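User: Predict structure, ligand NAP.
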Amino acid sequence: MRIGILGSGLMGGKLGTIFARAGHDVVFSYSHDEKKLERLARDAGKNARAGTPSDAASESDVLLLAVHWSRVSDVLRQAGGVSGKVLITCALPMNTSDTRLVVAHTSSGAERLATKARGAKVVSAFGTVPSEVLFGVFARRRRKTRPSLLYCGNGDDAKKVVARLIRDVGFDPVDVGPLKSARFLEPFTLAIAHLAYEGRKGPEVAYRFEWYKGGGA
Ligand SMILES: NC(=O)c1ccc[n+]([C@@H]2O[C@H](COP(=O)([O-])OP(=O)(O)OC[C@H]3O[C@@H](n4cnc5c(N)ncnc54)[C@H](OP(=O)(O)O)[C@@H]3O)[C@@H](O)[C@H]2O)c1
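Assistant: Predicted complex:
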């Protein structure tokens, strides 16, 4: 797949590197530091390169949105048209001090994003995992028992694409339903972050969801 990374920080930097190492073509974009984008591309190998958000959008079929909620409008403006693209969001709709969700319960960041990014096929994924575990999970990806990764979205084709990427990173994709399920997923994601950084297990926290995997039995 051709994947554009919008936001090359902790999540975008690691996921873009893994996507490139898994064989996908990756464009890293959106950082204060162009040299950092070039360094990331070099480290990720021959399938990766650095570019602008506009390059990332025009040269990709799949985009990963990995910026703070306060930067979403800016990065989308710089990206230009995203219509027709699969737009994966891992962004939690947090306030600028990261103390609370600014969209919750009756809507979600993912649904708001779908109204901003007109025509894009928005799928919420990768938000439920702390970035620190990503390389470790990728390294162990051939194991039978894999941690679950929850995702939701409306288009079946877009969800198939995202499920494949989730497997490539080393997780078992667990479909939690349509995009409006992000209303439940985002507060859950906040709970995962709380467990990871304030609980006793640290960022290694991972989980398995047998109930969903068993087809909701
Ligand atoms: N970190 C996690 O474990 C984790 C887990 C799940 C979900 N998330 C979500 O993922 C999203 C990204 O989180 P993150 O931890 O990856 O954040 P981050 O490390 O701060 O990455 C954000 C990226 O956006 C770039 N950026 C910010 N403002 C910019 C500006 N004005 N101009 C150009 N580039 C700018 C940053 O540039 P620089 O490269 O210069 O810093 C960085 O590359 C957030 O919405 C968060 O809720 C994070």
